Amino acid sequence: MSAQRIALVPGDGIGPEVTAQAVKACDAAARRFGIDLVWEDYELGADYWRITGQVVPPDVEQELAKADAILFGAVGDPSVPPGVLERGLVIHLRTAFDQYVNLRPVKLLPGVPTPIGGLRPEQCDLVILRENTEGAYVGAGGFVHRGGPDEIATQESVNTRKGVERLIRHGFRLALGRRKHVTLVHKANILTYAGDLWQRTFEEVAAEYPDIEVDYVHVDAMCLYLVTQPERFDVVVTDNLFGDIITDLGAAVQGGLGLAASGNLNPTGSAPSMFEPVHGSAPDIAGRGWANPAGSILSAALMLEHLGHPEAARCLEDGVKAVLPRLGAMRGPEMGMSTEDFGDAVAAVIGE
Amino acid sequence: MSAQRIALVPGDGIGPEVTAQAVKACDAAARRFGIDLVWEDYELGADYWRITGQVVPPDVEQELAKADAILFGAVGDPSVPPGVLERGLVIHLRTAFDQYVNLRPVKLLPGVPTPIGGLRPEQCDLVILRENTEGAYVGAGGFVHRGGPDEIATQESVNTRKGVERLIRHGFRLALGRRKHVTLVHKANILTYAGDLWQRTFEEVAAEYPDIEVDYVHVDAMCLYLVTQPERFDVVVTDNLFGDIITDLGAAVQGGLGLAASGNLNPTGSAPSMFEPVHGSAPDIAGRGWANPAGSILSAALMLEHLGHPEAARCLEDGVKAVLPRLGAMRGPEMGMSTEDFGDAVAAVIGE
Ligand SMILES: CC(C)[C@H](C(=O)O)[C@@H](O)C(=O)O
Ligand SMILES: CC(C)[C@H](C(=O)O)[C@@H](O)C(=O)O
């Protein structure tokens, strides 16, 4: 197999610290399995924006487009107006590279403390597939009489049959290799147009998979069930905004944002997929070695899987699973191990 | 004080069972404090719809409009297409009676088991104010090429300055009598139109209340914090859909949907306010005495408060607080006490 080119976008805050550990872990696995990974750094983020006035210039985007995958850290800094980097970089690349599946596992790993009393790892192992290119994220909307007493602000969710169907199909295919259960999460009793399209499409695709069990759960009830009965779920398909909301809750349930991984997948391969921890740039703890790189390393594992290296991916996961129980806390000085030490320990396990 | 007329809409499933206990508790408090409450029953819900083809006929709506308050149970039955009763009754009355504040306390009561490990009652005492008449609940949207491969379904959230401002103002007024902290929950980095209106309005109102501390939290982060740090919050203001989602999560945190109360308030008094437990009709356990009436009784407490009887309201709360710790579980046969016994026990405490 020829070399695989990975574009590295460490970004701001704790982004560089955690991605450095993910690179370390990938390199350890690459050595072990004879995989040829080539890393190319892109210094995008707050500094780049302040200096150049651009978030992702077209030539950089063209280079990124040629990578086999993108490993992303986090963006966001108090010096940049909120939303600029998130929309200009994260949301922009998800859309520009047609990464229509945002895959977010919610898995409680053994030895990780969860806020949910008595929850056991075998009760919490689901995958949330969030539609990643449309819905309320399209930026459609407007103002009437802005700033006056009669102001109206509208915000539109736009859902296409194609967009909804391809996400749902991905969910059913994924469920075939898992516990064969797919749940649609929406708010169809209120969002009657968008919900109707989602429900109809879901039922039509489900009819092609008679062996897969399906159900429907309203997004409000989903929040309740994620906390009280996560074992109800195997594969969950949902829209962009609901997916954003329930995956943060899922991260809480599985022990914290620091542990949550994600892949922005373009399953057609027409452009690279992008892998990123669910957490943000956490400027409050940046540069102190207090960030947990597990989310980044687990995202890199999803990347290796996507690049055709399932054994290497498994090794990264096993490394994280071996090291996490040694931590005193999942974040901060109480971790009892620096970000870098965590990465070294994972790399050591992988090398064994 | 002359008699206060309360329209009782027990509805479907467990609705009648739980509201009967709320009526019992109110009557006990009314006797104790010399309050004159007159109950008028309205048999709306699934049966009514099946027989008449109408959800709320105009003449019934006119009668309801004359009540001093409405005590609502729950609607929904497998025999009725999903959404018909919810939209035709609950959502319709919230809007028709301009009940623009949906007040939902999230309070962990002593002795109630919460799924959140180690959470103590003093860490969980917030009030979520959900805008209740607009946002994504207005039913705006449509289809293009419905049913075909090029179908597009749109769903619009409509937010007015007036609607947003009156909800936010209610939150600031409420915070004055509490811990003087108001949090805005939205997704302003993505929903840039609606979010901008909410943030601008929030900041303008906040400027009039220099003694009140404010902050802003994205809805996804809110889900995480509600589970891990509910003590961060005092009064939370948010839009209709986000409020729907985070209050179900809040209900989970405080021990279950069966315990969660709500008031749909029309603070101007131009039409009656409506009080309802956050739970649904739970047809699976209807008629067995397994429903927890706490949510309904606590909603009735909010009603008594709204009707100008704060001591009576306190008594209902104290009754629920006294009886809840005697339960073996918060719902189902394991409760160890029937729905009716729970109501009798609360009434007995109130009568003491
Ligand atoms: C940073 C933000 C724009 C982003 C989102 O809303 O998708 C984040 O919350 C996420 O979940 O990846
Ligand atoms: C029944 C349903 C329409 C309703 C809502 O979405 O508002 C319910 O979930 C609630 O929270 O009161």
From TrEMBL, chains A, B:
Give the cofactors, semicolon-separated: Mn(2+); Mg(2+)
User: Does the keyword section mention Repeat?
Assistant: no
| Isopropylmalate dehydrogenase-like domain: residues covered | 5-346
Q: In the Enzyme Commission scheme, what number(s) does this protein have?
A: 1.1.1.85
Mind listing the UniProt keywords for this protein, alphabetically?
Manganese, Metal-binding, NAD, Oxidoreductase
Gene Ontology MF, one: 3-isopropylmalate dehydrogenase activity
This protein's source sits in the domain of life called Bacteria
- A Pfam family hit: Iso_dh
Looking at its record, which EC class is this enzyme?
A: oxidoreductase
Q: Does the keyword Manganese apply?
A: yes
Q: Which SMART domains match?
A: Iso_dh
What is the protein name for this chain?
3-isopropylmalate dehydrogenase
Organism the protein comes from: Micromonospora tulbaghiae
Upper classification of the source organism reads:
Bacteria, Bacillati, Actinomycetota, Actinomycetes, Micromonosporales
